Amino acid sequence: MLLYYIIVVCLAVALVLIAKGRKFIAATVITFFVLQLAGAGYACCRGYEVTQWVFFKFDALGLTYTTLMAFMGLLTAWRSVKYLNCESVRHYKIYFCSLILLGASLIGVYISSNIAVTWIFLEATTLATAGLTYHRRTARALEATWKYIFVSSVGIAVAYLGVLLLAAASPDTLSYEGLKAVVASAEVNEIYLKLAFLFILVGYSTKLEIFPLFTVGIDANHSAPTPASAFISSSLVGGGFVALFRVYQVAMESPVANWVSNLLMLVGIFSLLASAVYMGRTSNYKRLLAYSTVENSGITMLGLALGGVGVYAALIHSLAHFVIKGVVYLQMSVVGRLYDSYKVGRIVGYVGVDRVGAVVIMLCAVAMVAAPPSLLFLSEYLIFSEVISTPRWWLIIPIVVPLLACAYWTLTKLLMILFGASKRNFVIAKRKPTLFSLILVLIMLGLFSLTIVYFDEFDKLLFLIRNA
After folding, report:
1. Which residues on neighbouring strands pair with residue 55, listed in sequence order?
2. Has residue 78 been placed in a domain?
3. Residue 157 domain-assigned (yes or no)
4. Residues with Cβ < 8 Å from 446, sequence gap 6 or more?
5. Among 173, 214, 182, 177, which residue's Cα sits nearest to residue 296?
């Protein structure tokens, strides 16, 4: 199956490069993501735990994120076709080639069963994301692109040091299953393990957008076209989570498990504090949503740090955030086109301009502040309950205070889009993609239904992912 996928990727890139018209490019990219979604569905039907080419394994964790990524890629490609309709054909080609290559690289991250192979594909996502970030060719885009390449490469290099330390502790294998068996041994040097997990966490923070190297992700999301920001904030951040979660599973089998949990707790709290400060200061909606990603990634770190029920909460939070952030960015691309701006205070009265789109923004606002029936409410409730039940119950204070600040800034600024008033009419466009917004509404309602009903199949899926 992987051989067929590589052929499809190469064929899609080749067709985009030789194409002469936008319609053919758009049809090629949309077909690519449709095939990717169909392939993910086929892999799920074949069953989990299927290994191919030694280094890849179709487990529940990888297939779940692969399916979500293919679906989000399809929506991103659909929206990008209209969003970039004024671009030159050359820039059109570069954008969609970068999008295809980013999706292909993320497949490798999701299904890799070897930590070195995961590292290779994460490095590949840096170059693909840089192509999306520099799309506008402005001075700000150039600065953000070079910053992303440099800091991400440094971060990935730091992560490679962690991989080398694990290789020194486990010279015979770098597969995740093999590492679990090796690190459980009492003969492994704990200093090596601590440094390895620290370096990997710091390196992967560029992709997961957590403290300390989260700033490059903020700039990339701000500079990239908004549909691309939807894919970066959902699929790429999801890739960072999958990569770190597999390392976390190894760490929990080692004698330094408690140390790793404390480290994740610190990273989670600092991520929340940073997002709370910057969300209040920003006057740009794309940056606001990017800092919201830092907040939610920090919450997933808290869940992993707590262990037990907290791990399930982290998985729920990561999956829900994947969908919510993709949807809100895609709808924000519609808003940005209507107002030709993403500045806070300039986008007002959206309810009277696009009612279906306003419903999407309202549903996303409810979901992002973790109000019922958002799945984020369920995950945060589980995390808070777990924190209170431990001897470190006092940690609830540095967790809840920045969370409340983030919720306040998110809600007030998003509601300003809907109900804000101004003496000027800033709307410059009249065409609204009503069908596209309606699909986004249905996606959000489907996500809310999981909280209300909490289907048994979803619970079984979480169990399979937890034990992948």
Report:
1. none
2. no
3. no
4. none
5. 214
Total domain count, the chain: 1
Quick one: 145 exposed, middle or buried, by C-beta within 10 A (0-12, 13-18, 19+)?
buried
- Report if residue 42 sits inside a domain: no
Helix axes 456-466, 309-339, angle to 10 degrees: 110
- Residue 466: CB partners within 8 Å, gap ≥ 6? 311, 312, 315
Can you read off the two tokens belonging to residue 140?
């700000």
DSSP string for 214-258? -HHHHHHHHHS-HHHHHHIIIIIHHHHHHHHHHHHHHHTTSTTHH
Residues 6+ apart with CB under 8 A from 130: 98, 145, 148, 149
DSSP secondary structure string for all residues of 5-34: HHHHHHHHHHHHHH--SHHHHHHHHHHHHH
CB atoms within 10 A of CB 147: 16
> Which range marks the domain in which residue 396 is found?
273-468
State residue 306 phi and psi, 5-degree precision: -75, -30
The secondary structure element, H or E, covering residue 386 is helix 375-388
Instruction: Give dist(CA 149, CA 281) in Å, integer.
Output: 26
pLDDT truncated to tens, each residue of the chain (468 aa)?
A: 788 889 999 999 999 999 988 999 999 999 999 999 999 888 888 776 677 888 999 899 999 999 999 999 999 999 999 999 888 899 999 999 999 999 999 999 999 999 999 999 999 999 999 999 999 899 999 999 999 999 999 999 999 999 999 988 877 789 999 999 888 876 778 888 999 999 999 999 999 999 999 999 999 999 999 999 999 999 999 999 999 999 999 999 999 999 999 999 999 999 999 999 999 999 999 999 999 999 999 999 999 999 999 999 999 999 999 999 999 999 999 999 999 899 998 999 999 899 999 999 999 999 999 999 999 999 999 999 999 998 889 999 999 999 999 999 999 999 999 988 776 667 776 678 899 999 999 999 999 998 888 777 788 888 888 876
Structure tokens given for 70? 């293919």
Answer whether 237's CB lies under 8 Å from 291's CB: no
Does the residue 393 lie in any domain? Answer: yes
Which tokens hold the place of 460? Answer: 């079984």
The neighbour count for residue 464, using CB atoms within 10 Å, is 15
CB neighbours of residue 54 within 10 Å: 10
Query: E strand or H helix at 109, and its extent?
Result: helix 89-111
Can you name the residues that pair with 58 across neighbouring β-strands?
50
